[in-house]
What does this fold into?
Amino acid sequence: MTGHNGAAAAAHAAHGAGGAAGHDDHHELGFLRKYVFSSDHKVIGVQYGLTALLFLFVGFVLIALMRWQLAYPGEPIPVFGRLLEAILGPEVAFKGIMSPDLYNSFGAMHGTIMVFLAVVPLAFGAFGNYVVPLQIGAPDMAFPRLNMASYWCYFLGGVLMFASFFIPGGAAKSGWTSYSPLATIADLAHHVDGQTFWLLGMVVLITSSLLGSVNFIATIIQLRAPGMGWMRMPFFVWAQLVTAFLLLLAFPPLEAAGLMQLMDNIAGTSFFLPSGLVVSGRPLEVSGGGSPLLWQHLFWFLGHPEVYVLILPAMGIVAEIIANNTRKPLFGYRSMVYASMAIGFLSFIVWAHHMYLTGMGTKISTFFQTTTMMISIPSVIILTSLFISLWGGSIRFNTPMLFALSFLPMFGIGGLTGLPLGFNATDIQLHDTYYVIGHFHYVVAPGTIFALLAGVYFWYPKVTGRRMNEFWGRVHWATSLVFMNLVFLPMFVQGLEGMSRRMYDGGATYAAQEGIHGLALAIKLNVGISHAAWLLGLAQIPFVINFFWSIRHGEKVVGDNPWEATTLDWATPTPPPHGNFASPPVVARGPYEYSFAGRKGDFTPQNQPA
Amino acid sequence: MHEQNAHDVKEATRKYIYVFVALLLGTVITVIASFIHFGNHAVNIGVALFIASCKAFLVAGYFMHLISERKLIYGLLGATGIFFVGLMGLIIFANADQLFTGFR
Amino acid sequence: MDIPYTVQARPDTGLYNAKVGIWLFLASEVMLFGALFSSYVLLRVGSETWPQGLLNVPLGTINTVVLICSSITVVLAWASLKLKDFGSYKLYQGVTVLLAATFMVIKSFEYRDKLTHYWVRLNDGTEMTGHIEGKPFNWTKATLSKPELGLTEIHFHPDPVPAATGAHADSEAAHGHEGAAAHESLTIPVSEISRLESFGPWRSTYLAIYFTLTGLHALHVVGGALVIGFLWGPGSRMWRSDPERLTNRVEVSGLFWHFVDLVWIFLFPVLYLL
Amino acid sequence: METLITKLLHLPPVASEHGQGLDNLMLYVHLLMFALLLGWGAFFLYALWRFRQSRSAKANPEGVRSHVSSYLEVGVAVVEGILLIGFAVPLWARGASFENFPDEKEATVVKVIGRQFNWMAWYPGADGVFGRSAPEFVGDSNPLGVDPDDANGKDDVVVESSDVYAPVGKPVVAHISSLDVIHSFSVKSMRVTQDAIPGLSIPVWFTPTVEGTYQITCAQLCGQGHSSMRGLFHAVTPAEFTSWLGEHTRTSGEQVSYE
Ligand code: HEA
Ligand code: HEA
Ligand code: CUA
Ligand SMILES: [Cu+2]
It folds into this structure.
């Protein structure tokens, strides 16, 4: 393989027995064991990555169709409308016009797919799997077969979710939050409905991420290479460790809640159904006595930590790329580590800021808004540290760096707009408006997605031995940045004007009328936003082509360490073989020793002996 | 637990038997206690949960060797305990604040 | 490179990988059952009435004892491996699997009991609980009108009405529902019945949480028994090639088993006695 | 000044007593956000320009040594604390604490009940007492299940057309609830939002100050008709209110005086 430089090849030839055994295994495996049912963390990482990108695309297609309905309510969707009618039937897309039920299904599935099937698997499953063992100098994950099971559970969950579009009644249509009682009674005509599939899918996905997080934590605790002390771990590893803890402890309550809702939906229990429900003018024949708010508590107990699951790995990726491309250590590495732990801890006790308007008393809501304000501080610390890390650097503007740099202000805007939501008094006005949509999309779309794209461009050479095309990378970056902002910035205006989310007609019902104040600007903005969203989709074409084209035709990298990085992931052969390291690495220094005075070259790899 | 030699294991085995007997006794006591009226049902609940906690302590402490486990595991379980208490406590607090203050 | 610390403990943590793994997993299980317990508490506090003594305490007690016995056999099995006594290991762990099966059998009788116990509402609004003659399993109003059954009426044995209220009186009444000999049998025409329901999870919040919690627990019992059974049967061949690793596996599966026992220790009083 | 804030943030016009306080907090938070955005934005762009590779060939691993960033972080925390204790908590307590509620005798009391997909307003009528309700009385002409035999309910007024009327200048206490799924009662110009949760009846209060008709938004996904579950809140003069209520009384003939 071309990636091997002389030294690594020599080491390869001379390496110990363990390495040889690992390598031999590798050759004996058939195609199926090697690429499909592989237990190698790198193959699994790539599997996660490709599947997640596919779901990212699915999530985008859903929203692209919804944006038509938002911009031009009630008009048939050109071309794709007929396709929808043919595939899903005229009940939901008559003459290519999206029905309210279809809109709600797409909305719920967009949220679910983006969060649970696209971003988390990409950030945690793909990057975590591929990079963490490399960065800590481990030969693989602690439990390789569990790792494989984790991927296949994820795959099964994805299949269940995707299949639910095609069952009678269509996919879940009660929002990604699936609030009861709506989730239970939205589709009374079908006993097994989209919500059932959603719940089963979630249970499988939760199992997958539990397996994953057990594996990650055990790996990071147990398999660090000799010399890799806690404070020598790259920030990315820390971010993944905290993320894994969030998944481990926050997901089970949702699994419990999911089981209870499943019982409500198929066994007729009333965990989340209060007594005295009257649906369509008839008392509902259930035992009653349940609590709808209980579902919300259990959902948001996961839901809030989940958003940090989305952002922490992204911050980790950005930190790696910034340190590498400013050619200097991260500013305040230790305080960043402590801040990420603080985020992890606090994120378990802020959840009810999503529930201010459920009739909360003063005491409890004061508690939750105080913790919400507290959690913004460690975020500020991490972001500030990353900003300040730029100072004094020698900044290289390559594609990964451009994406990573854009992450900073985008996350900044998203995080800052969390503040008026976090104050319960202002949330009275902003709750469930497009302000919320704007807030979190700034964090997850131009924020997390940019960080993930940065990661793709950054680690691509390690995985394939080739670089992605730099020019098209820049085109991808510039257009994405522009369109992302054109999509999400106007949403704050819409929200302030009072436009609610999950509106099938884009708020047209609430348009201003003679003598009645209503939405005026928001409805106009809908059209612009939709066009920007479609252009945003088009802007990904260079990326997709670049991504596949470069596998075979990209510029080959010279050496194993094309970015001249310090962390151990770059100390492996390219691409890393089964077992990863040519010889077991020994760590002698901290993660970011760039440009230290009196050293040869401007970087010192972690495994270079003192 | 980290017994290295046969003697330790035999020692431990005896302890397991004691614990086993204690657990059986605990079960009997719980059942009997549930048929006694302590006046207030809350007391009954308290007694039953207290006995259950003692039994849980025995199982976790001896059968699961938590009495002599590594710091790492204490840390993990401590954190889990805190989050569990937070989950349960805050949900109940939120509902109480909502339902029992005035008309909320 | 091979994965290190699969058998030997890592010096700085003092643990081997699987042990870290199982404790992490158990931590997540604590949150899983913890959330269900929290729900139980919340639903119970928020409800006006809470049925008591619906369950069969003797059976529950027997099952508690069964699980405790299985816990001791699990530790003894592990201790036998530590003492290099493979024969005792096979014996103890075999008993464990049998005890697990016993637990499941008893559990299934309890479930059957609930699903053959009925609540019925007549067209005139009368509501009764009791048994249908022949002990049919989980009928509903829809079952009654199935043509192949050809039913025009059912024979219903109502439960004795509890004499006094209060936890204790209730429970005795309910326990006695079978023994209390000759209370009358009613003949109810099918056309009179407006609703029929067995005491499944749909019947009340209490039964819902009972079935959910014990069902999930039962799944854990089955899962644990499968793993232990595997390590007892085909998995035990590792004794010849890598005895220490097998011992570790037995320890780890044992930790899981004790946790399952531990959950039951709380489930039993909470669901059966309080 | 006040309307300027509202205009600046492009909020709907305020028509309730406490609305302005909410807008003020909204402005202060946004000022904090803008300050941070501009400050860090300027720093960011300058740093990118100043330390680009072609200008700064060799990095200085020391980077920033001053503690300005720590002071800034403390500063942000302090400002957040002030906004929290000084504004958000009191504003919330106004609406959510039992002690701060107006006396129901001095207020316009109404139950607002959501269902798929409209709002129903239920006034207690002249006696000021709501009738009993229970699911078994629910029928096509009695969607709320008001007990027909309950004397307190005889003079009650139930409006099914998603219109809520209230006189200006007097507090409104609205008990928000729902029959089926969760809805959310939101009158943006009143700066009021409250989820309507089945099984719970949650009171909110506000004092309309400006006459007019305002939209009631359903702000919680409630099914396929969610986007069209609009209502109208009519803030009218006390006289208009009385006569409107009179037109809707069930007991025809006698004029209902609401005071
Ligand atoms: C990754 C995802 C993510 C992240 C990180 C956050 C971060 C935060 N979120 Fe957000 N949030 C969501 C995802 C996220 N959120 C989602 C998905 C929802 C909606 C769910 C739904 O209802 O469907 C939501 C909803 C939501 C609500 C509920 C709103 C409502 O429904 O009414 C609230 C309320 O408190 C809130 C608050 C916050 C706060 C205070 C932070 C803080 O942690 C933010 C802290 C960060 C900062 C304070 C930035 C600091 C920046 C600087 C110091 C520098 C600035 C510089 C420049 C701009 C150049 N969020
Ligand atoms: C991680 C989470 C995430 C992400 C990334 C996104 C991304 C986007 N979201 Fe969404 N969104 C949610 C989570 C997310 N969203 C959630 C939780 C909700 C609430 C749901 C609810 O109400 O219940 C929501 C709701 C939501 C709404 C509100 C709907 C409503 O209330 O009615 C809108 C409206 O415009 C929207 C738009 C968008 C847009 C334009 C993007 C764009 O940024 C998309 C950009 C993506 C692409 C352009 C695709 C790129 C594709 C590739 C790179 C593929 C490459 C493929 C290969 C190599 C094989 N989203
Ligand atoms: Cu009612 Cu939305
Ligand atoms: Cu949150």
